[in-house]
Design a protein that fits this description.
Elements: H1 4-12, H2 18-93, H3 99-116, H4 121-174, H5 182-199, H6 205-230, H7 236-250, E1 253-255, H8 265-273, H9 277-280, E2 287-290, E3 303-306, E4 309-312, E5 319-320, E6 333-334, H10 335-352, H11 354-358, E7 368-370, H12 372-385, H13 395-407, H14 419-433, E8 447-448, E9 451-457, E10 460-465, H15 466-469, H16 483-496, H17 507-510, H18 516-522
Parallel strand pairs: 1-2, 2-4
Antiparallel strand pairs: 3-4, 5-6, 7-10, 8-9, 9-10
Helix pairs in contact: 2-4, 3-4, 4-5, 4-6, 4-7, 5-6, 7-8, 8-10, 10-16, 12-13, 13-14
Length: 528
């Protein structure tokens, strides 16, 4: 109880009546004693009820945590998609084709819809996390591209048109007065000038961008006609015009370290005119370069893509053996032109991660990543179930021979193996040796359990669904080298011929080819 000193302090400082304070303390103590007695009486009964209450709260807590995790994953996804939608709107406002951005957005939304349905919550959280990463990357890539593509659509195309117009005029002016084509070309030049003057008065950027794309095609046709009339197809002056037009329009660098003459920049411009602006003006295409000699010191007759760089070899005007995928009829095309589109296709695939998401689908080739060991197991299994049923050979020796043939050790008869046994085993080993990438195995597939296995690139093994290959989807055997080649070949053939890819191609892939959204809607995958 408070002493005299405390009584004075309580009353004078805090204004508390000490008598009432003491009485309250006594009453409080009695209340505590009563509660303790009652609590002891109720303890036994309360244990069960308390346990149930705790269990209920724990369950609610866990559900709240899981819901919180879901909300944590969903919020970043929604934010990223909102950002991506905004960038797509900017592209549309610029008067440009948005189909590839829209196709990427749909692919991400489809992946999210699939992930959110996963019943197992940890698995769902992982799937949602992957979708969020995709959405964030797509939004960031779009933001980086949009400013460039918007500028390209107006200022870039305007500059390119000026280069083509001036180049054509220089060639037309040099034509002799007696040249029968000169009057018609001069008339077309005058009409082009009128179109350029008219579009310069259009204030709306989207409307101007659409008109400029048409004017660019007109200017290119005029330039091409003037070049033919002057007989100057590969002249340095003509290539310089197209070099300036490409760089100013699309914003990528052009390098030619060896000074190679066959740059065919006119064909590059014409091929890039066939595709949406957004396929060329993007972060995965920064340089076009030329390399006339391959790694073996021979004339480079091919092309390559990697690290946002397209490398073209020393092409002439040779035709490449493509075929109509529907009829199988020969459909040869200019090698340089189709290769330009093929390598651009790799760039587009790299930018939008198309085959990363779709390669395993039937309409994507039914591709699967493999290892040398898995491929060896497939061949060993086929051999044991067939010709090797009666062959007495140690499993280790058989495995070593198969893996050796696949790995590049060649095909050699073991010293202690009889000629009869070797005659049974050798054909399988020969097939294995021909699965290596330097043997062009995509041109002679070997089927095992409905799949074809081979080395696509050095130490990079794949397999694909043979049932898919047997459908009318192939434009060239090289298409079946790897998932990326499968896309690039169809992309190139589609845009080169200005027609949608074969019907069997999945809609998520078709969306990036000629016909875009409409072609994707017509794909079998869209009708399921």
């Amino acid at each position: 109880m408070p002493d005299e000193r405390h009584n004075s302090w309580l009353k004078d400082v805090l204004g508390i009546d000490t008598e009432k304070y003491v009485a309250a303390l006594s009453a409080g103590a009695q209340t505590v004693r009563t509660a303790m007695v009652r609590g002891a009486d109720a303890a036994e009964d309360g244990v069960i009820a308390g346990a149930k209450a705790v269990a209920g709260l724990a369950s609610k807590g866990l559900n709240a945590i899981e819901d919180g995790v879901l909300a944590t994953e969903t919020a970043p996804y929604e934010a990223a998609m909102k950002s991506l939608d905004a960038e797509i709107k900017h592209v549309a406002d610029a008067g440009l084709d948005t189909r590839h951005y829209a196709a990427q957005e749909k692919s991400i939304r489809d992946a999210y819809a699939d992930a959110i349905k996963i019943a197992d919550k940890p698995t769902r959280a992982i799937a949602l996390g992957k979708v969020v990463l995709r959405a964030n990357q797509a939004a960031a890539d779009a933001k980086a591209d949009v400013a460039r593509v918007s500028k390209s659509a107006v200022e870039g195309v305007s500059a390119a048109v000026t280069h083509l117009r001036d180049g054509a005029k220089a060639l037309i002016d040099k034509l002799p007065q007696a040249n029968k084509q000169k009057p018609e070309l001069a008339k077309r030049l005058s009409e082009l000038d009128a179109s350029i003057a008219a579009v310069g008065k259009v204030d709306d950027r989207a409307a101007r961008a659409k008109q400029l794309k048409q004017i660019s095609a007109t200017a290119d046709l005029l330039m091409d006609a003037a070049v033919r009339a002057a007989g100057a197809q590969d002249s340095d002056a003509v290539q310089a015009v197209y070099s300036s037009a490409l760089k100013d329009r699309y914003g990528f660098e052009i390098t030619n370290p060896s000074g190679m003459k066959n740059t065919h920049l006119d064909k590059v411009y014409q091929m890039f005119e066939k595709v949406p602006e957004t396929d060329v003006v993007q972060g995965k295409l920064k340089t076009l370069t030329y390399q006339p000699v391959d790694e073996k010191g021979k004339k480079n007759r091919g092309a390559a893509y990697g690290g946002a760089v397209i490398e073209m070899g020393d092409y002439g005007d040779e035709k490449w053996p493509y075929k109509d995928p529907k009829t199988g009829a020969d459909a040869p095309v200019n090698g340089f032109s189709i290769s330009t589109l093929h390598e651009l296709g790799h760039s587009v695939d790299d930018r939008f991660k198309i085959m990363d998401e779709n390669q395993g689908k039937p309409g994507g080739g039914g591709w699967r990543k493999e290892t040398l060991e898995k491929v060896a197991d497939a061949f060993i299994g086929q051999f044991k179930a067939g010709a090797g049923k009666k062959l007495k050979i140690d499993d280790k020796q058989l495995g070593d021979l198969v893996r050796g043939a696949l790995g590049g050790a060649g095909v050699k008869k073991p010293d202690k193996m009889s000629n009869e046994d070797w005659a049974v085993l050798q054909p399988t080993l020969e097939i294995c040796a021909k699965r290596r990438n330097d043997k062009w195995p995509w041109g002679s597939p070997h089927e095992i359990g409905g799949r074809a296995y081979h080395e696509a690139y050095e130490n990079d093994w794949v397999s694909y669904d043979m049932a898919v290959r047997k459908k009318a989807l192939t434009v060239r055997d090289y298409q079946w080298r790897a998932p990326g080649e499968w896309f690039a070949e169809l992309y190139a053939y589609s845009y080169f011929n200005s027609k949608p890819p074969p019907p069997g191609v999945d809609g998520a892939i078709t969306a990036y080819m000629y016909g875009g959204k409409a072609a994707a809607a017509a794909a079998p995958s869209a009708k399921k």
